[in-house]
Amino acid sequence: MKFKYILSFLSIPFLSSILQAQSQSVPASSQNDTIWKTEGNFQFLINQAAFNDDWQGGGTTNYSANIVVNYDIYYNKGKYAWDTKLLGDYGINKIKDQEFYRKTNDRLELNSTIGRQIGQSKWYTSAFVNFRSQFDKGYEFGEDVDGNDTRRLQTEFMSPAFTQLGFGILWKESDDIRVNISPVTGRIITANKKFTTTPGYVDGDFFGIDEGESIRTEFGASVNAFVKFKVMEGITVGNVLSLYSNYLEDPLNVDIDYTLNLIMSVNKYISANFTFQAIYDDNSVRGFQIREVLGVGLNYTF
Questions:
Q1: Which residues pair with 159 in a beta bridge?
Q2: Which pTM was predicted?
Q3: Residue 155 Cα distances to 1, 152, 198, angstroms
Q4: What is the DSSP code string of 256-273?
């Protein structure tokens, strides 16, 4: 895998976002005027299609629903800045005559970074914590010899769970543009032992965890960046990029997690939402995991 080409490709939309957002950002010197600031967004997206038995054009009755919650807390006082972001994203899909519903999205994530400003610059010494898991069980679906739907448990809440803690430097243009670089980062991957004690289990098969174990520890470096800006009135783009390199094992094999979230508000309560996410982590899959979601639904900003 030629990571320098992959990173170059993924960096194009992200760097473009930084250049766009910088023209709209608030100078760092004005950040200290506000001690606490919070903002959040709740979205409920739903899609549905129905066909009666006489419909000849083809199609299967189905529905899908998705709930997204974003909440941000900012603290700025003197030389100190503390940014915390909570993300919850859960979606399901059900098709007629299909025995089980299937997840379309499932993500729980918390990011928190605290920094102390260096002089009057936009640089801060920093510490951060990141936690990622999921809300619901994940399954691999199939059919038995009689054609009946089957499913096999693959993941569940806290299995896996990823926790990172690191120290480094933070560059902060504003609350909406920041990059944290942590050359000293510890990562813990946890899971229920039932996933690592199945017959025929091979060390590392479940997110790198060894047979019979429930914890994997790593030590490496990370880069976390966030850019949000308005394209025009009612259209907001958010970008989140996370990179991680494990010093102890294949340090050039960088884990990548990039998310683009486009919100197009029709009015205060109705919006269209487009999400694109690309993940590379060869402890789970030796290839890119890609998801894309487009929906229209209820939107509430708080």
A1: 156
A2: 0.83
A3: 26, 10, 13
A4: EEEEEEEEEESSSSEEEE
Q: How many residues does the chain have?
A: 302
Residue 18 φ then ψ, to 5°: -60, -45
Task: Quote the tokens at residue 59.
Answer: 């199609």
Residue range of the domain that includes 237: 3-301
Tokens of 265: 């508000």
Question: Which CATH number characterizes residue 186's domain?
Answer: 2.40.230
CA gap 108, 181 in Å, rounded: 23
Residues 119-165 have pLDDT tens digits of: 999 999 999 999 999 999 999 999 888 888 999 999 999 999 999 99
Q: Could you give the CA distance from residue 103 to residue 94 in angstroms, rounded to a whole number?
A: 9
For the stretch 255-287, pLDDT in tens is: 999 999 998 888 888 888 888 999 999 888 878
Q: Provide the domain count of the chain.
A: 1
